[in-house]
Amino acid sequence: MGTANARTVHLDPSTRRRRPRNGEAAGLYVSRSVWAPPETVTPEQRLRDLAATGRLASVAAGGGPERAELTGAAYTMVWPIVFMRVTRRFERQRGHAACAAAVENLADECLDRFHDDVEAVVDDLLAHADRPIRQLEAWVATRVGAATVNAHRRRRGERGALQRPRLPGWLADGLGQDKWLTTLAVDILVWVGVSGTAGHELWPLESWAQTRAACTGDWTGSDPATVRREIDQVLAVMRRRPDWYASFVERPLGAKQAPVVAMATDPYGEPVAPLGLGEPDDRVESELRRLAGDAVRAIGDRIGRGQPAQDAVVEVVRTVFGGVFTGTLDQAPHGGADPLRGVTGALSDQRRLKAIVSAALTILDEPGKDKNEPGR
Q1: Taking a C-beta distance cutoff of 8 angstroms, is the pair 320, 295 a contact?
Q2: Same domain, residue pair 82 and 143
Q3: Residues 303 and 230 in one domain
Q4: Are 287 and 325 in contact (CB under 8 A)?
Q5: Could you give the angle at which helices 282-304 and 350-365 cross, rounded to 10 degrees?
Q6: Based on the structure, what is the number of domains in the chain?
Q7: Does any domain span residue 299?
Q8: Less CB within 10 Å around the terminal CB: N or C of the chain?
Q9: Which candidate, 251, 214, 211, places its Cα nearest to that of 231?
């Protein structure tokens, strides 16, 4: 490449050809910002913005759709804190290692308690965030304990139980100041105020048996049967003050939800049919009436075809009433009287056979008689 000593020529900017900003084709230049979608604020960001300005409590108090949106955002933010700070610790204390591992591992009753705690912390956040909060998660973590405890006591009060169960002096004296019996009395007062159940039992006997063993040191004698007897002993002392017992034991205990079994099974694992409504013998009576109706119709058909009445009755009764009677299949053998009462055996007795034939002919001769309802 060579060099030149000539004077440098400066280009006139007005003579330069400018390329269109929107391509080589002629057209109108449009800024890209015009096409940018409008920025939307997520509920989570809205929650944090309101908390940072100290207006979260006032806005949430207004109710309406905005409170519902803020509640959902608060729930999303709060539940990991509640699980780490509260749920995991208590599940480990209960010995629920699987429940303490993750939320998706929580058993039904443990999951109910978790949701109650999360709801309590969400309500506390929306009610008390009335000052600027820069670190919302840290602020919530400092209030988790108080919020869950207050909500727990409030739920106990709604059930009619003591909010802070304490042992009255008269009850301790009535139990002889016994260490285990007084502990059991407090456990009873706590148990009646919680929503949990003990399966098909009224009291958590297995758990209290372990507590008894740890309290008394009697590991061999601490079984559910012993705990049941001691519960009756404590309740007997509590009943000495009927009004107190009715208010703080019987009423909240009656508010517990009865456990529902999906399908009952017998000792062999076979499903057990639920008991039908009505008298125990209704099903037996219904089947006997059905069999009698079938027998009357069959006897009438045979007599109509010319068969002797006695022969028709003998054959039909032996056929209809001599098979398997399903009305008592769910009962233990020899658990009740024979519902057929020896009907087939009566065919060998001429006197009783004549009575059966006479009754059948009487039913067939009754005008307008529905053969499905023998009536006799």
Answers
A1: yes
A2: yes
A3: no
A4: yes
A5: 80
A6: 3
A7: yes
A8: N
A9: 211
**Cα three-residue angle 127-131-137, rounded to 5 degrees:** 75
In a domain, 321, yes or no: yes
Residue 376: inside a domain, yes or no? no
375 part of a folded domain:
no
Residue with tokens 């658990």: 335
Query: Quick one: 180 and 154 in the same domain?
Result: no
| Tens of pLDDT, residues 243-283 | 999 999 999 888 887 766 566 677 776 776 666 666 666 77
Does the pTM surpass 0.70? The reply is: no
d(CA 234, CA 172): 10
Q: Given 129, 158, 187, which residue is the final one in a domain?
A: 158
Structure tokens that stand for 233 in this block: 């002993």
Local structure of 42: helix, strand or coil: coil
Q: Measured between alpha carbons, how far is 120 from 122 in angstroms, rounded to an integer? A: 6
**For residue range 167-221, what is the model confidence (pLDDT) as tens digits?**
999 999 999 999 999 999 999 999 998 877 777 788 999 989 999 999 999 999 8
Range of 343's domain?
282-329+338-365
pLDDT of 13 over the 70 cut: no
Read off the pLDDT of residues 130-174 as tens digits, 9 standing for 90 and up: 999 999 999 999 999 999 999 988 888 888 888 888 899 999 999
DSSP code, position 105: G
Give whole-number Cα distances, 258 to 89, 116, 195, 366, in Å.
28, 19, 10, 53
Strands, E assignment, the chain: none
Q: Which of 203, 234, 254 is the last residue of a domain?
A: 254
Count CB neighbours of 289 within 10 A: 14
SS3 299: helix
Q: Is 319 in the same domain as 287?
A: yes
Residues 134 and 182 reside in one and the same domain: no
* Radius of gyration over every alpha carbon of the chain, rounded to an integer in angstroms: 41
- 332 alpha-carbon distance from chain centroid: 33
